[in-house]
Every structure is written in structure tokens, then in C-alpha cells.
Amino acid sequence: MLKRLFDIIFSFLGIISTLPLLILITITIRIDSKGPIFYKGIRMGRFNKSFKILKFRTMFVNSEINGPPITIKNDTRITKVGRFLRKYKLDELPQFINVLKGEMSLVGPRPEIPLYFKYYTEEEEKIILSVRPGITDYGSIEFHDESKLLAGSKNPVEDYVKKIKDKKVKLQLQYIKNQCLWLDVKIILKTIKTIIYTRLYKKNI
Fold first, then answer.
1. Alpha carbon of 153 to those of 60, 72, 74, 78, 83: distances in Å?
2. In Å, how far are 42, 124, 126, 127, 166 from 183, measured between CA atoms?
3. Where are the domains of the chain?
4. pLDDT per position as a tens digit, 29-42
5. What is d(CA 168, CA 173) in angstroms, rounded to the nearest whole number?
6. Are the C-beta atoms of residues 124 and 170 closer than 8 Å to each other?
7. pTM of this prediction?
8. Which of 32, 62, 81, 183 gets the highest tally of CB atoms within 10 A of its CB?
9. For residue 151, which of 167, 139, 163 has the smallest C-alpha distance?
């Protein structure tokens, strides 16, 4: 109950505090390329129920049809504005709405597309889908530059499973085992710190 209350309060505050930025992003997407403002992708949620995750659209229309369900560095399907939004994780901001709707939490295992769960064990799937997926978690911090790790891959899905999936799952299970409100606060602060350091500070040193 406390976690849900925390999610509602801070996702609402997140929307209000970033409203001018959300409007600016909406305008730039509209100017940059044709298509909808938002991307709505199917993800697996709590209790194995699918939902539509909200993101600002960062790719050209029908890009999923013309390529793999995962992006890599310098992916030509990504728009100019989309590349900037992805770099600073700004495309994830609409997920505050998913949180308000109860489909996601601020902190929790990142939601995956149904395809990836065929690579999970029954136990992994059962535990991970027993909680609400989140906007950020240990895995989001550890693999904040996931697209770079898959750069040049001829089969991004296969390489994701080989190089990243097991480590992500281990971190997700670790979070679920130790989850508490204080841990959520620490992960949120660490996420912000990671984005600032790797995208702004580290770039200038």
C-alpha cells in the first residue's frame, strides 16, 4: 500500500513538474517526423497481464515491421529528435501515466515484450511477473547504454539474450527479494545520478 501511494504521489508530481518539457517534446516530435506523438508497445505486466507501455515516439513509423524488436547504436530507424530523447531517457517520461494507471511502478523490473519470456525459466518468469514492472531498476542503471553493447550486432535479439538477459534477470530477482520503499528511493536517486554523470559530466571530462 505504501509503495502504491508513493508511486501515485510522485508520478503525479513528475507529470506536473515536467509539463512544460512534455509540451516542448511533443512539439519537436511533431515537427521532426510524421506519425503519432506516442509509441504504444505491448509489454508483459504483473500477474502475466499484458499492457501498452507509453513512450514518446523515437522511431520512424512502421520501424518495428522493418527491423528487430530491439535497437542498437546508430540504428537508422531512430529519428533525429528520437536519438536525443533516448540519450537522456526523456522518451520514458510518459510512463508516469502507466504508473498512475497501476500498470507500472516507479521502480521495478523493466517490462519486456512477450517474445523474451520464452528465454526465461518458469521460476524466473513467475517471480518477475509477481510484481509491477518499473520505469527504472538495477538493470536500467547497469545497462544504461544497452544499445552500445549491441552495436554492430547482426542478430540483436540473440546477442541480447547471450550478453545481457541473464545479468538483468539476476538484478531483477535481487531487487524483488529486497524491495522496500527506501530501496526504491535509492534506485531513483542513483538512476538520476547515472544519467547526469554519463550523459553530461562524463562527456565533458
1. 21, 8, 11, 16, 19
2. 28, 21, 22, 18, 22
3. 2-204
4. 999 999 999 999 99
5. 9
6. no
7. 0.89
8. 81
9. 163
